[in-house]
Specification:
Elements: H1 2-14, H2 33-60, H3 67-93, E1 99-100, H4 106-128, H5 133-142, E2 146-147, E3 152-153, E4 156-157, E5 163-165, E6 170-171, E7 176-177, E8 180-183, E9 186-189, E10 192-194, E11 199-200, E12 205-206, E13 211-212, E14 217-218, E15 223-224, E16 229-230, E17 235-237, E18 242-243
Parallel strand pairs: 2-5, 3-6, 4-7, 5-10, 6-11, 7-12, 10-13, 11-14, 12-15, 13-16, 14-17
Antiparallel strand pairs: 1-9, 8-9, 17-18
Helix pairs in contact: 2-3, 2-4, 3-4
Length: 245
Amino acid sequence: MLKHHIHIWLLRASSIDQPETCQVGVSMRKINGLQIATFFLAVLVSLTLAIATNTLLAAGLPAGDFRGILLTGSAVVFFYAYAILVYRGFLWATPIKAGEIAEGTREEFTYHVYLLFFLLIFYPVMRSGFVPVPILRVFYQALGARLGTNTYCSGIIFDPILVDIGGNCIVGQSAQIIPHVIEGRRLAMFPVRIGNDVTIGANAVVMSDVVIGDNAIIAIGAVVTKGTRVGEGEFWGGIPAKRIR
């Protein structure tokens, strides 16, 4: 049942990613039981550490009306902090390399566990709209995104480990940066590189293997397709995005 629900989530996630070359009638790869078990072991480690830390904190807090609220909030923060540490440790031990991910390989196993971290733990934070943008910046950096000075994102950065954004950039509300490719049974990841002083408009989509030069602007709602090269100072818009000036 759990694997069925995860497969549905994958279908929903991939429907916005790379539609132009998706093979009709070809089923997606499925996350297997060992990958799910590995993920839940990581969750158990994170949860155990969070409970232990929160218990130590509780011992030092005086009784009061807000004690329960403080402990509940700190438990959530500790869980996410440990989950990020476990996630980064997992990727350090079994790194994901950019490029095509073949079926049945160690890279596929790692990617599916990595994907579960995002589907079940990290995406709810990214999509909530509740987290202030400055805190979201720190969250993305903790997940591996390289963000320059004074760069902020109020959209969603999928696969932060493959995203490099220069300084003084803004990624607008509900914009999406998507380094992965899911097309039928094809699975791949390619980096997205964005220069300095770049504006990504609200609801824009930047797909895998895109390079955007300094001082460029991507219009609201534009879809920058896979492998596009946006030159320095250029303005792009439309679906698919094309150079306007």
